[in-house]
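Here comes my example:
=====
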Amino acid sequence: MKKLTILEMGRINTDQFKKAEKMPLIIILDNIRSLNNIGSVFRTSDAFRVESIYLCGISAVPPSPEIHKTALGAEDSVDWQYFEGTHEAVRSLQQAGYKVLAVEQCEGSTMLDTWTPDFSSGNGYAVVMGNEVKGVQQSVVDLCDGCLEIPQYGTKHSLNVSVTTGLVIWDFFKAFKQQHGW
């Protein structure tokens, strides 16, 4: 087996990415402290053509050398917006017809491995990813249309926010690809 070179992979460029069809999923980052985590979310969002990232509260925004260090240019391809408060981002998406889900350990949350998004309605989804220490703010959880939880079977009660985001994006992507025929 020979590793493929970048040219052999046939990746699209940033201009082509901007024009390409996107998965109707928006990632909302609720007060993410680590610029490396933010950069990682940009890079994963680029890989699966996520529609946009909403950076809220203390979450840093591009341009930033620390974000670029892990995003590797994905901060230029993936659309993003900044909101002073996460509540504003959630409300605006709900008004636009998005189903907004917090990714959090909550009473009555739905386990990610037993749930499949339904893209047939034509509306999109948004997922709220919480702060590295405090998670998604309770007042934001209260605004959301539901909660998704990643089942965990080890001794720790949480995953790194960029890892969690990657798992959630992958789950949405698999469903979108199957339903949409990508």
